[in-house]
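Chapter summary example.
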Amino acid sequence: MNDKIDINGFTNKVDVINSIVDNIDDGKLDNAKDMLFQLRTQEEVAEALNPLGKYKLVEEPKQMELPLEEPEVKPLDDLENALFGTKEESDVDTLLELENEMARGK
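The structure predicted for these 106 residues follows.
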């Protein structure tokens, strides 16, 4: 089945079928038959292109936008932070050590 259709400005099967019904109700049988022929033709083309129905038509993938500037990499800083922690963590550790020493009377 073809997911992308365009029949008299209608782009999905439900709208096409509703329009066909409306045309029949209004006595516009030629318009209804024309729309049915267009729908059948589009279905036949889709079936010919994909006879086993195993391929799904998808829209083209969107291009990802890359940042204009590369992020600044500081491998030494990253390594130091991983091994020794950040400056803030070090300050907290120092304060805790001082507090413990005060509690022990040093």
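To summarize the output: Residues 49 and 85 are 60 Å apart (CA to CA).
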